[in-house]
Design the sequence.
């Protein structure tokens, strides 16, 4: 599977392919965790599953569990590559998967299934230090 981009920094990758979750919900969750550090994102997703925190009043439990599994897989890949676990930033994106059709069961459901592909990368970026340290100014003051 092609990734949306190839980072210049050290990184680990993982894919969730043909997951039976809503693409719309997955996109919302991926946008929320994109740019977070690994520990923050993992804690946020666990709280979302436990219904301690919500996104716009919704918990998106099914999609969150699948994304959390892909994130943990990516975390394991990062450990195997020897990346610094404290400085990993999440890049997550969700895309519509192939259309799978099923027979109609009376009039209960439609005939197209929800299929989503998820792409997850953990990119090594150092955390920004606190403000007020030794900062040199351009104007010479």
Sequence:
């Amino acid at each position: 599977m092609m990734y949306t981009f190839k980072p210049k920094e050290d990184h680990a990758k993982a894919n969730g392919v043909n997951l039976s979750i809503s693409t719309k919900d997955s996109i919302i969750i991926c946008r929320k965790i994109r740019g977070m550090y690994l520990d923050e994102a993992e804690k946020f997703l666990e709280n979302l599953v436990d219904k301690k925190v919500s996104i716009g009043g919704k918990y998106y439990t099914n999609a969150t569990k699948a994304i959390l599994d892909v994130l943990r897989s990516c975390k394991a890949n990062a450990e195997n590559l020897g990346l610094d676990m404290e400085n990993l930033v999440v890049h997550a994106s969700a895309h519509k998967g192939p259309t799978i059709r099923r027979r109609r069961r009376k009039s209960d459901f439609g005939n197209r299934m929800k299929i989503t592909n998820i792409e997850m990368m953990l990119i090594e970026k150092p955390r920004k230090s606190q403000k007020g340290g030794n900062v040199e100014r351009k104007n010479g003051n």
The chain has three helices and three strands. Residues 22-124 form a domain with the Ribosomal Protein L22; Chain A fold (CATH 3.90.470.10). The chain has one domain: 22-124. The CA atoms of residues 88 and 124 lie 5 Å apart.
